[in-house]
Design goal:
about 120 residues, 6 strands, two-stranded antiparallel ribbon
């Protein structure tokens, strides 16, 4: 089992911007991903996971705004890919829930082998 902490993830609605006819990663997403990758590199120095996993995500927002829980999963899954897991298709079970709000917001991540 691996336990990791990431900054509170950006919503999927804010991950991309339209540039003419193209979709590009938004500046906010690039900044969040850079922070997340740096945190993951500090917390995880093992071999890439290449087996099916169960992913548990507990989110603690920094304020009481209404949010859709599932809109925050994609940014986390993408950050884990290539640093922790070889591909996000290895996620066979996903469990998400809210934690009470906290000053800066964060995401607790637990990765377990899928049974």
């Amino acid at each position: 089992m691996n336990k990791l902490v990431l900054p509170f993830p950006i919503s999927v609605n804010a991950m991309y911007s339209n540039l003419g006819r193209r979709r590009v990663k938004s500046k906010r997403y690039r900044i969040w991903r850079e922070k997340a990758v740096a945190m993951l590199q500090i917390q995880y120095n093992q071999k890439l996971i290449d087996y099916n996993i169960k992913l548990e995500i507990a989110l603690s927002p920094k304020d009481k705004r209404k949010r859709d829980l599932d809109n925050h999963a994609k940014a986390i899954q993408d950050a884990l890919t290539s640093l922790i897991i070889t591909d996000d298709s290895l996620i066979k079970e996903l469990y998400m829930y809210w934690l009470p709000k906290s000053k800066n917001g964060y995401a607790n991540i637990i990765i377990e082998k899928y049974k």
